[in-house]
């Protein structure tokens, strides 16, 4: 290879002159051996990285409080990071070479960057030497990395598990969970012959053990059952020890000694327990179960004798709780605000009469309680710690400001971090990194499924399983697993029940952030404490106070996420020049008007988010970003994309459109983006929104076989045939938005092939003949449907009634007639219904037995609807009703004789769209959702007011001045 390279370069140099030949000749002598061996070296170093990562993932979950081992492991992590740097630097240099044009130019570029290639070669040698030194260091200091002493680890795990209730020794001190304790007691005492398995589920620190202990010690239980036993299982249980502990508690100790049970095998122990329990009504608690296997072993010992015996398990994992039959599961939640305050005062001010908080400390105490977010363990432990301190405002302020440090270093608060960290240590390696990534978000941040999945994939944290599943589906499985382990809480679901947003408890985020920082995984900078960020951090999120950073020059950075919207453009431009190995760049809401020039030199970028910025143009130099997977340009000013975008063959998600403002009777409130060139090369594309239709593009779409989500606007009737032909070639298409070019364009959808996999569908534009086409009868899987301005002359409800899976239905300007009828048995799963802008509608008939799951009803601009539909009284599940621009007669009937029709509805909100301030501030929720909300991809199109609480344009509806006539009945 080296000789061939020399010959090629010599030929080039001959045409340039002898001086150039002499210079190149000298450099080739040096570079040729490096280039020859480099490919082999890179393969070796990549293999080394995979082994290092597997090793770190394995031992990180095993070791607790071993300072020598931790220091050594920290060095191993550092080597792993250095190896990753080498691999990414290699990708960076290779991309530069590829981007240089012709073959000859590429070879010159290799010579030009000779120093960089040589430096990389030296780095590989240094890493190999460091790995060898680590091996020697392990032997020198006797560091054990083999199997741990399981007995000691078991005792430690048991100690942590018991800490879940260590703060409560007296049942009179229990606060909250009254209903849960009552329900649990009822289940345990009910007369039922079958042996019952009951589960208490919840994250660490919620008081699962405390509640189980409360009922276990209840005198009724002592008399109701013949015998009792309590064993703590923990993460590192040994089945023989568990069985022996059960024998000790059930059977007379003297009999145990005589029978030699201490030397029995687990099979013999099972037989002993079964024989003893055969004719008894027993109550056994298995505390802190982490996997199903533990129950599978113990299940054989707990005989099913039809005496009404009970087994109670506590667990953090949903899959373990599913072992309980007949839905005997109690899922604990965090305490309410009043309960949290009561528990804190009991602990922090126990020396004072009636546990009253002094007025000078009340504000601080409330902040501390709020920080604990209803977690009983944290509230009680922090309260107990503060009870020994002076009731001094300055001391309490210092404690509050240093709470993160206290959690990591204060022995009095070790219980909190230990209990919460047990779930982190138990995670497999592939989940652990993903969970650590979640700690980069601000507190109380709603983590969106699609966004976090794309970030994980861009970072290389999601494995390719090779079973036909996409990495997005694997990432979704990761999130489900983190939820089942009670590490993330689902806060919102989409139309067909899939989790849409997640929340990480703030204290879980705190302890996880400490781990992420210690392991150099990533840092969440909050503008307080230190003005310096470690140069060894691999990921950085800036939540506030960006300009207070004095040092930020990590060449190791892979993710750079900015939540601070106040940063100036020059700062952004300057800072990005230091991150040459960056994979993730998120500048959402940042005040920039153009793409920083250095971005197109970041060859390793996989994820770019410029959404909600003032960026107007994407430069042609984006063609260099050959690794790019996600480009998010929603709510920018980018109206067209350059031809070069079609060269990004690794692109998986392309989101881009311009928002023009609110136009009630228009299809052009958003501007579709024009894409130049042939999109056939984008074969990995899974999501594309919102693209402007043209004759060539609609035919090219058929080449995108992996497409799952498509929004296309400015569609003309002449495009429909070719467009639909392309759609039928997308076997995975499940979300589709089609919008006509204007309000007058008539779309003919007759004789089109079905799209059997479609789940979300929005159609905007007039339909020929004013009747729903037959194709609507083939949408059997549809869960979400919106039809805009179709000009139908026939009641569409009967034509849609066969859609048994429909959960969300929105009809906006859809129907020109006067009456709509909902018959009994129709729409059995419908949860959300919008009816808007149908000027002639004066009567809505709702039969008893229709829409029996409806939760929210929105009526907007139905100017001729004078009375409340009487059938609403039949829909007992209806909890929310939004009324916008409705006639005075209609609103008056709510207070008149027809009021009983809606008395079961908890919240009725009344708005006027003439409130321009509300509309302009993006806070007029019903107005937005009825007229403009694209239910498909809601989580990716519209901003979440909880994401950025300091953004002026996002407020709650109440703050707009909109009239709220009836609320919380």
UniProtKB/TrEMBL annotation:
Residues 440-510 form the Disease resistance protein winged helix domain. It holds the Pfam family NB-ARC. Residues 557-859 form the Disease resistance R13L4/SHOC-2-like LRR domain. The keyword Nucleotide-binding applies. InterPro entries: Apaf_helical, Disease_R_plants, LRR_dom_sf, LRR_R13L4/SHOC2-like, NB-ARC, P-loop_NTPase, RX-like_CC, Rx_N. Keywords: Coiled coil, Leucine-rich repeat, Nucleotide-binding, Plant defense, Repeat. This is Uncharacterized protein. It comes from Paspalum notatum var. saurae.
């Amino acid at each position: 290879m080296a000789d061939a390279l020399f010959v090629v370069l010599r030929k080039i140099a001959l045409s340039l002159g002898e001086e150039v030949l002499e210079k190149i000749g000298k450099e080739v002598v040096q570079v040729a051996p490096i280039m020859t061996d480099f490919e082999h070296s890179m393969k070796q170093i990549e293999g080394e990285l995979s082994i290092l990562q597997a090793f770190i993932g394995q031992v990180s979950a095993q070791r607790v409080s071993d300072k020598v081992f931790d220091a050594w492991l920290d060095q191993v992590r550092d080597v792993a990071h250095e190896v990753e740097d080498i691999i990414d630097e290699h990708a960076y240099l290779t991309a530069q070479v590829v981007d240089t044009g012709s073959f000859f130019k590429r070879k010159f570029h290799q010579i030009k960057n000779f120093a960089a290639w040589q430096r990389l070669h030296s780095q590989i040698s240094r890493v190999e030497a460091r790995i060898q030194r680590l091996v020697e260091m392990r032997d020198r200091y006797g560091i054990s990395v083999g199997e741990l002493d399981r007995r000691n680890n078991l005792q430690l795990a048991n100690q942590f598990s018991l800490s879940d209730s260590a703060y409560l020794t007296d049942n009179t001190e229990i606060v909250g969970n009254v209903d849960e304790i009552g329900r649990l007691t009822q289940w345990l005492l009910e007369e039922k012959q079958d042996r019952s398995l009951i589960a208490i589920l919840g994250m660490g620190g919620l008081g699962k053990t405390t509640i189980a202990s409360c009922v276990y010690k209840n005198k009724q239980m002592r008399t109701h059952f013949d015998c009792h036993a309590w064993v703590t299982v923990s993460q590192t249980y040994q089945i023989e020890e568990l069985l022996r502990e059960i024998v000790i508690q059930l059977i007379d100790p003297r009999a145990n000694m005589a029978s030699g049970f201490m030397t029995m095998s687990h099979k013999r122990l099972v037989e002993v327990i079964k024989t003893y329990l055969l004719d008894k009504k027993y109550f056994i608690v298995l505390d802190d179960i982490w996997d199903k296997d533990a129950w599978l072993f113990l299940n054989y010992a707990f005989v099913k004798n039809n005496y009404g015996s009970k087994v109670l398990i506590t667990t953090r994992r949903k899959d373990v709780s599913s072992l309980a039959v007949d839905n005997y599961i109690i899922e604990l939640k965090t305490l309410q605000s009043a309960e949290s305050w009561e528990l804190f005062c009991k602990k922090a001010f126990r020396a004072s009469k009636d546990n009253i908080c002094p007025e000078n400390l009340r504000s601080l105490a409330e902040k501390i309680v709020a920080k604990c977010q209803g977690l009983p363990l944290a509230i009680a432990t922090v309260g107990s710690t503060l009870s020994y301190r002076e009731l001094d405002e300055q001391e309490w302020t210092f404690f509050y400001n240093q709470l993160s440090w206290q959690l990591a270093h204060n022995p009095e608060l070790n219980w909190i971090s230990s209990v919460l960290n047990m779930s982190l240590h138990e995670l497999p390696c592939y989940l652990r990194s993903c969970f650590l990534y979640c700690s980069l978000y601000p507190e109380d941040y709603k983590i969106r499924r699609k966004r976090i999945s794309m970030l994980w994939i861009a970072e290389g944290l999601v494995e390719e399983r090779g079973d036909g599943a996409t990495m997005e589906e694997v990432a979704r499985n990761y999130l489900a697993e983190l939820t089942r382990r009670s590490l993330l809480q689902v806060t919102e679901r989409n139309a067909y029940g899939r989790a849409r947003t997640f929340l990480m408890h703030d204290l879980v985020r705190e302890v996880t952030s400490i781990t992420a920082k210690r392991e150099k995984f990533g840092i969440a900078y909050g503008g307080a404490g230190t003005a310096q960020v470690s140069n060894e951090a691999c990921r950085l999120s800036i939540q506030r106070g960006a300009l207070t950073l004095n040092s930020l020059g990590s060449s190791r950075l892979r993710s750079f996420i900015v939540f601070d919207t106040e940063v100036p453009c020059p700062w952004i431009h300057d800072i990005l020049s230091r991150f040459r190995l960056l994979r993730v760049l998120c500048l959402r809401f940042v005040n920039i008007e153009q793409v920083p020039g250095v971005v197109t030199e970041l060859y390793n970028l996989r994820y770019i988010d410029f959404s909600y910025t003032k960026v107007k143009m994407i430069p042609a130099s984006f063609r260099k970003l050959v690794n790019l997977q996600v480009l998010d340009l929603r709510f920018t000013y980018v109206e067209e994309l350059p031809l070069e975008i079609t060269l990004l063959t690794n692109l998986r998600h392309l989101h881009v459109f311009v928002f023009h403002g609110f136009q009630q009777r228009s299809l052009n409130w958003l501007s579709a983006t024009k894409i130049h060139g042939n999109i056939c090369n984008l074969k990995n594309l899974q999501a594309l929104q919102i693209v402007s239709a043209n004759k060539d593009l609609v035919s090219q779409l058929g080449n995108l076989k992996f497409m799952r989500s498509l929004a296309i606007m400015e569609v003309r009737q002449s495009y429909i045939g070719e467009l639909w032909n392309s759609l039928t070639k997308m076997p995975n298409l499940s979300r589709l938005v089609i919008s006509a070019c204007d309000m007058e364009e008539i779309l003919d959808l007759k004789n089109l092939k079905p799209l059997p996999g479609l789940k979300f569908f929005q159609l905007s534009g007039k339909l020929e003949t004013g009747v729903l086409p037959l194709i609507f009868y083939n949408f059997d899987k549809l869960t979400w449907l919106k039809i805009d301005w179709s000009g139908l002359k026939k009641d569409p409800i009967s034509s849609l009634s066969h859609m048994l899976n429909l959960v969300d239905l929105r009809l906006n300007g859809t129907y020109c007639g006067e009456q709509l009828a909902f018959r009994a048995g129709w729409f059995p799963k419908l949860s959300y219904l919008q009816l808007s802008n149908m000027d002639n509608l004066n009567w809505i008939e709702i039969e008893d037995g229709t829409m029996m799951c409806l939760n929210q009803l929105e009526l907007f601009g139905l100017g001729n609807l004078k009375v409340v539909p009487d059938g609403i009284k039949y829909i007992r599940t209806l909890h929310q009703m939004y009324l916008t621009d409705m006639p005075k007669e209609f609103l008056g009937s709510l207070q008149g004789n027809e009021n009983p029709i809606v008395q079961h509805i908890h919240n009725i909100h009344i708005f006027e769209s003439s409130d321009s301030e509300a509309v302009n501030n993006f806070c007029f929720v019903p107005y937005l959702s009825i007229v403009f909300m694209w239910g498909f991809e809601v989580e990716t199109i519209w901003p979440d007011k909880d994401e950025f609480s300091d953004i002026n344009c996002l407020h709650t509806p109440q703050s707009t001045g909109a009239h709220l006539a009836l609320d919380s009945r």
